[in-house]
Protein backbone atom coordinates (compact mmCIF):
# COMPACT_ATOMS: atom_id res chain seq x y z
CA UNK A 1 0.00 0.00 0.00
CA UNK A 2 1.06 3.54 -0.67
CA UNK A 3 2.65 5.30 2.28
CA UNK A 4 0.13 7.70 3.79
CA UNK A 5 2.31 9.35 6.43
CA UNK A 6 6.09 8.97 6.35
CA UNK A 7 7.91 8.06 9.56
CA UNK A 8 9.72 11.41 9.39
CA UNK A 9 6.32 13.04 9.82
CA UNK A 10 5.35 11.03 12.91
CA UNK A 11 6.39 11.82 16.47
CA UNK A 12 5.19 10.00 19.59
CA UNK A 13 4.82 10.91 23.24
CA UNK A 14 5.64 14.57 22.71
CA UNK A 15 5.58 16.75 25.81
CA UNK A 16 3.82 20.06 25.25
CA UNK A 17 2.47 22.67 27.60
CA UNK A 18 -0.70 23.52 25.69
CA UNK A 19 -2.64 23.07 22.44
CA UNK A 20 -0.72 25.82 20.67
CA UNK A 21 2.54 24.06 21.26
CA UNK A 22 0.98 20.80 20.10
CA UNK A 23 0.01 22.39 16.76
CA UNK A 24 3.44 24.02 16.61
CA UNK A 25 5.19 20.64 16.97
CA UNK A 26 2.94 18.85 14.48
CA UNK A 27 3.41 21.71 12.01
CA UNK A 28 7.18 21.78 12.53
CA UNK A 29 7.37 18.25 11.10
CA UNK A 30 5.80 19.52 7.87
CA UNK A 31 8.08 22.55 7.95
CA UNK A 32 11.12 20.30 8.27
CA UNK A 33 10.01 18.12 5.39
CA UNK A 34 9.52 21.29 3.32
CA UNK A 35 5.77 20.87 2.85
CA UNK A 36 4.92 24.28 4.28
CA UNK A 37 6.29 27.68 5.10
CA UNK A 38 6.39 28.84 8.72
CA UNK A 39 3.35 31.07 8.28
CA UNK A 40 1.09 28.06 7.78
CA UNK A 41 1.71 27.01 11.40
CA UNK A 42 0.59 30.44 12.60
CA UNK A 43 -2.47 30.16 10.34
CA UNK A 44 -3.44 26.83 11.94
CA UNK A 45 -3.19 28.33 15.43
CA UNK A 46 -5.13 31.38 14.30
CA UNK A 47 -7.86 29.15 12.84
CA UNK A 48 -8.49 27.61 16.27
CA UNK A 49 -8.52 31.04 17.91
CA UNK A 50 -10.88 32.47 15.27
CA UNK A 51 -13.26 29.58 14.85
CA UNK A 52 -13.02 27.76 18.14
CA UNK A 53 -11.86 24.22 18.77
CA UNK A 54 -14.16 22.59 16.23
CA UNK A 55 -11.11 20.80 14.86
CA UNK A 56 -11.24 18.48 17.84
CA UNK A 57 -13.34 16.13 15.76
CA UNK A 58 -13.63 13.19 18.08
CA UNK A 59 -12.74 12.34 21.67
CA UNK A 60 -8.97 12.69 22.00
CA UNK A 61 -8.42 13.62 18.36
CA UNK A 62 -7.78 16.91 16.58
CA UNK A 63 -7.29 17.61 12.89
CA UNK A 64 -5.10 20.69 12.73
CA UNK A 65 -5.09 22.59 9.47
CA UNK A 66 -5.62 25.95 7.86
CA UNK A 67 -6.94 26.80 4.46
CA UNK A 68 -5.01 25.98 1.31
CA UNK A 69 -2.57 28.80 0.64
CA UNK A 70 0.70 29.65 -1.12
CA UNK A 71 2.38 28.81 2.21
CA UNK A 72 1.67 25.17 1.47
CA UNK A 73 4.42 24.00 -0.86
CA UNK A 74 3.19 20.43 -1.20
CA UNK A 75 0.34 18.37 0.25
CA UNK A 76 1.41 16.81 3.51
CA UNK A 77 0.24 15.07 6.65
CA UNK A 78 1.95 14.67 10.00
CA UNK A 79 0.80 12.97 13.15
CA UNK A 80 1.89 13.38 16.75
CA UNK A 81 0.82 11.78 19.99
CA UNK A 82 1.15 13.54 23.31
CA UNK A 83 2.81 12.37 26.49
CA UNK A 84 0.22 14.32 28.46
CA UNK A 85 -3.05 15.16 26.69
CA UNK A 86 -3.97 18.85 26.33
CA UNK A 87 -7.26 20.71 26.31
CA UNK A 88 -8.46 22.78 23.36
CA UNK A 89 -11.65 23.91 25.08
CA UNK A 90 -13.72 21.29 23.29
CA UNK A 91 -16.27 18.79 24.47
CA UNK A 92 -13.97 16.14 23.01
CA UNK A 93 -11.00 17.15 25.22
CA UNK A 94 -8.43 16.10 26.27
CA UNK A 95 -6.59 15.64 22.99
CA UNK A 96 -3.87 13.04 22.69
CA UNK A 97 -3.55 12.52 18.92
CA UNK A 98 -3.11 15.36 16.42
CA UNK A 99 -3.21 14.94 12.68
CA UNK A 100 -1.79 17.97 10.94
CA UNK A 101 -2.78 18.57 7.35
CA UNK A 102 -1.51 20.93 4.70
CA UNK A 103 -3.06 21.08 1.27
CA UNK A 104 -2.29 23.19 -1.77
CA UNK A 105 -5.91 23.28 -2.91
CA UNK A 106 -9.33 21.97 -1.94
CA UNK A 107 -9.25 18.70 -3.81
CA UNK A 108 -5.82 17.20 -4.58
CA UNK A 109 -5.34 15.83 -1.03
CA UNK A 110 -8.71 14.14 -0.84
CA UNK A 111 -7.67 10.59 -1.66
CA UNK A 112 -4.90 10.54 0.95
CA UNK A 113 -7.02 12.18 3.63
CA UNK A 114 -9.81 9.75 2.84
CA UNK A 115 -7.46 6.79 3.29
CA UNK A 116 -6.06 8.13 6.58
CA UNK A 117 -9.53 8.99 7.84
CA UNK A 118 -10.71 5.47 7.12
CA UNK A 119 -7.89 4.12 9.29
CA UNK A 120 -8.51 6.59 12.08
CA UNK A 121 -12.24 5.96 12.14
CA UNK A 122 -11.73 2.29 12.91
CA UNK A 123 -13.07 1.60 16.40
CA UNK A 124 -10.49 2.17 19.11
CA UNK A 125 -7.85 3.36 16.66
CA UNK A 126 -7.20 6.71 18.36
CA UNK A 127 -6.49 4.92 21.64
CA UNK A 128 -4.26 2.38 19.95
CA UNK A 129 -2.27 5.12 18.23
CA UNK A 130 -2.04 7.12 21.45
CA UNK A 131 -0.64 4.16 23.34
CA UNK A 132 2.12 3.42 20.81
CA UNK A 133 5.57 3.89 22.29
CA UNK A 134 7.42 4.08 18.99
CA UNK A 135 7.14 5.90 15.67
CA UNK A 136 7.31 2.52 13.98
CA UNK A 137 4.22 1.36 15.88
CA UNK A 138 2.18 4.34 14.70
CA UNK A 139 3.61 4.05 11.21
CA UNK A 140 2.42 0.45 10.98
CA UNK A 141 -1.07 1.26 12.24
CA UNK A 142 -1.49 4.04 9.69
CA UNK A 143 0.24 2.61 6.67
CA UNK A 144 -0.32 -1.12 6.82
CA UNK B 1 -38.60 16.08 -4.94
CA UNK B 2 -35.26 14.89 -6.31
CA UNK B 3 -32.31 13.56 -4.40
CA UNK B 4 -31.59 15.64 -1.29
CA UNK B 5 -28.44 17.72 -1.40
CA UNK B 6 -26.46 17.44 1.82
CA UNK B 7 -23.71 19.95 2.53
CA UNK B 8 -21.05 19.02 5.12
CA UNK B 9 -19.33 22.08 6.49
CA UNK B 10 -16.10 22.87 8.30
CA UNK B 11 -13.87 25.90 8.62
CA UNK B 12 -12.29 25.64 5.20
CA UNK B 13 -14.25 22.98 3.38
CA UNK B 14 -11.35 20.61 2.95
CA UNK B 15 -10.62 18.78 6.21
CA UNK B 16 -13.22 17.71 8.69
CA UNK B 17 -16.08 18.34 6.26
CA UNK B 18 -14.54 15.69 4.05
CA UNK B 19 -14.40 13.20 6.91
CA UNK B 20 -18.02 13.92 7.69
CA UNK B 21 -18.95 13.55 4.03
CA UNK B 22 -17.24 10.14 3.94
CA UNK B 23 -19.13 9.02 6.99
CA UNK B 24 -22.47 10.19 5.65
CA UNK B 25 -21.84 8.55 2.30
CA UNK B 26 -21.10 5.20 3.91
CA UNK B 27 -24.27 5.47 6.03
CA UNK B 28 -26.34 6.28 2.93
CA UNK B 29 -24.89 3.26 1.20
CA UNK B 30 -25.57 1.00 4.19
CA UNK B 31 -29.24 2.03 4.27
CA UNK B 32 -29.62 2.23 0.54
CA UNK B 33 -30.48 5.92 0.67
CA UNK B 34 -29.74 8.36 -2.11
CA UNK B 35 -28.35 11.84 -1.63
CA UNK B 36 -25.76 14.13 -3.10
CA UNK B 37 -23.14 15.04 -0.50
CA UNK B 38 -20.65 17.87 -0.93
CA UNK B 39 -18.25 19.87 1.25
CA UNK B 40 -18.44 23.55 2.05
CA UNK B 41 -16.76 26.09 4.30
CA UNK B 42 -18.36 28.04 7.09
CA UNK B 43 -17.91 31.39 5.32
CA UNK B 44 -19.77 30.52 2.15
CA UNK B 45 -21.95 27.53 3.07
CA UNK B 46 -25.13 29.56 3.50
CA UNK B 47 -25.05 30.73 -0.10
CA UNK B 48 -24.49 27.22 -1.52
CA UNK B 49 -27.69 25.61 -2.67
CA UNK B 50 -28.51 22.54 -0.57
CA UNK B 51 -31.35 20.95 1.42
CA UNK B 52 -29.59 20.41 4.73
CA UNK B 53 -26.29 21.29 6.39
CA UNK B 54 -24.32 18.94 8.62
CA UNK B 55 -21.75 20.82 10.69
CA UNK B 56 -19.77 20.56 13.93
CA UNK B 57 -21.55 21.74 17.02
CA UNK B 58 -19.17 24.63 17.60
CA UNK B 59 -19.44 26.00 14.09
CA UNK B 60 -23.19 25.56 13.93
CA UNK B 61 -23.67 28.56 16.20
CA UNK B 62 -22.02 30.75 13.59
CA UNK B 63 -24.48 29.88 10.85
CA UNK B 64 -27.73 29.10 12.65
CA UNK B 65 -29.02 32.67 12.15
CA UNK B 66 -28.13 32.80 8.48
CA UNK B 67 -28.89 29.32 7.21
CA UNK B 68 -32.01 28.92 5.11
CA UNK B 69 -32.05 25.13 5.43
CA UNK B 70 -32.08 22.82 8.47
CA UNK B 71 -28.73 22.73 10.29
CA UNK B 72 -27.80 19.47 11.97
CA UNK B 73 -24.89 19.67 14.39
CA UNK B 74 -22.52 16.82 15.10
CA UNK B 75 -20.50 16.43 18.32
CA UNK B 76 -18.21 13.63 17.28
CA UNK B 77 -17.23 13.39 13.61
CA UNK B 78 -15.99 9.85 14.05
CA UNK B 79 -18.95 8.50 15.94
CA UNK B 80 -20.90 6.56 13.39
CA UNK B 81 -23.72 5.92 15.81
CA UNK B 82 -24.34 9.63 16.33
CA UNK B 83 -24.03 10.48 12.63
CA UNK B 84 -26.14 7.52 11.54
CA UNK B 85 -28.88 8.48 13.98
CA UNK B 86 -28.95 12.06 12.74
CA UNK B 87 -28.85 11.12 9.06
CA UNK B 88 -31.69 8.61 9.46
CA UNK B 89 -33.70 11.11 11.46
CA UNK B 90 -33.32 13.62 8.64
CA UNK B 91 -34.52 11.09 6.07
CA UNK B 92 -37.42 10.00 8.25
CA UNK B 93 -38.55 13.60 8.58
CA UNK B 94 -38.48 13.96 4.81
CA UNK B 95 -41.10 11.26 4.51
CA UNK B 96 -43.52 13.05 6.79
Tell me the fraction of residues in β-strands of chain A, as a range.
Answer: 15-25%
Query: What summary fits the major beta sheet of chain B?
Result: 4 strands, parallel
Percent helix range of chain A: 25-40%
Q: What is the top-level CATH class of chain A?
A: Alpha Beta
Q: What is the string of helix and strand elements of chain B?
A: EHEEHEH
Uncertain ranges of chain B? none
Distance between the first and last residues' Cα of chain B: 13 Å
Order of helices and strands of chain A: EHHEEEHHH
The CATH superfamily of chain B is Response regulator
Quaternary structure classification: heterodimer
Instruction: Figure out the total of helices of chain A.
Output: 5
Distance between the termini of chain A: 7 Å
Query: What topology, given as strand order, has the largest sheet of chain A?
Result: 1-3-4-2
Residue share in β-strands of chain B = 15-25%
Protein chain pair with the most extensive contact, residues per chain: A-B, 31 and 25 residues
Assigned CATH class of chain B: Alpha Beta
Portion of residues in helices of chain B?
25-40%
Which characteristics define this entry?
heterodimer; A: 144 residues; alpha/beta; Mannitol-specific EII, Chain A; four-stranded mixed β-sheet; 4 strands; globular; B: 96 residues; Rossmann fold; four-stranded parallel β-sheet; 3 helices; 40% helix
